[in-house]
Amino acid sequence: xxxxxxxxxxxxxxxxxxxxxxxxxxxxxxxxxxxxxxxxxxxxxxxxxxxxxxxxxxxxxxxxxxxxxxxxxxxxxxxxxxxxxxxxxxxxxxxxxxxxxxxxxxxxxxxxxxxxxxxxxxxxxxxxxxxxxxxxxxxxxxxxxxxxxxxxxxxxxxxxxxxxxxxxxxxxxxxxxxxxxxxxxxxx
Length: 188
Hints:
Number of helices: 7
Helix content: 25-40%
Radius of gyration: 17 Å
Low-confidence stretches: 1-10, 12-28, 43-57
Number of strands: 6
CATH class of the domain at 54-182: Alpha Beta
């Protein structure tokens, strides 16, 4: 992942001659994935060895099961906006299939944790709207549109939009859990 971030950072900060610097034309072509990679690169550089796990260690976690399907996105949004990594992952099945914004398919909570850790360290805020559910017994297909705000390396606020499509399953005592989360979809 660090190599991917470095390559993106270098490509975005190199001008046509190959010298480091800012190139306005390249900055205009910045995709959501490239922006998030660039932000992670800045965070890693700025943290000077502070581990993300230690940064989140002091935060209280909400791992309360969500038993009302209509409250799943509320809980996810609240935990995401609070930077509650453990609480957020408590909404995922242990063997979840998570497709990140780059389209990489990650299996399990630990792979999902690693992907979210860098993003949550940036203290983003998300608003999830246009939520829809199609339910079959204890499984639901859910969709949404979201708006994400976070500061770039200069402190300027950036607004990203997209959409999600997820499959959740009611796990009785564990409530509704994400079993498939595809964050690579764009909002239409």
